[in-house]
Design brief:
globular; mainly alpha; P1 Nuclease
Amino acid sequence: MFAIPYLIGGIVAATEDGIINKIHVLSKGGGMSSYSKRQFVRIISVGIIAALMLSPSAWAWGRIGHRVAAEMAESRLSPRALAVIHELLGPGVSLSDISTWADEHRNPSSGAWHYVDVPITESRYDPKYCLSKGCVVSKIADFRRILIDRRADKFKKQEALKYLVHFIEDLHQPLHVADNNDRGGNQTQVRFFNRGSNLHRLWDSQLIENKSHNEQDWLRDINSLATSQNVSQWSKGTPEDWAAESLQIAKKAYCLPGTNTVMPSGTKLDDNYCRMALPIIQTQLAKAAIRVAATLNEIFR
């Protein structure tokens, strides 16, 4: 995350150069000055990058959440699944290493795959809320099909594995399933320990980072939830069922602690909200890990 300003600057510069070349060809012989071209293109370029950054699909669970869920999942893979995955990914590449790939390589066409906006007034997930270009629920099924397809080449299977792991984890971030006419919480502004934020960002990473930046601490916490009873229960169901679970949890995330009152924009949140949210986050990350492992074990049995 520390390199984001430099990354954005590089993307803007590259975008400008590409668009300027096009404008130069199209306006050859015209009256647009070199300075005007550069200013015009900078506005377009910054707008493109801003649109990408503001997508509600960005960085669910953040780096820490994705990595610890994937590490826990890998520890629960069958020998057969582990061997196939290591063959696909190559020596020394783990599930935690690839768990953030889909965020790092997202683009305008894949952005909508990370989430589905189901109104919090609904009782469960309905496929009608999945966009025609796909959503987090439908893409899990799509990439599962690629992984079981014997005709799919190695590159396609590598990519499918990276997306599948990431999207199962995304599906367990409640604000990547629910919506209150606020782009999944992105437009519900909050004050978190007197710092400006929004509800979506809070659940993506800030609640996790507020507790600890140490991946091993988080891994220990979520592994402790993997009792035989929980593993048996959480291994069941479909992505549609898991989306319905996340929707119900999101209804709680949208409310003031201990109430059924949906928080208005500008709400101040503190320890009371953390005490409510952190056990949910731990459980959701543990569920995601169990379900990633169960899905991969079933695919590569």
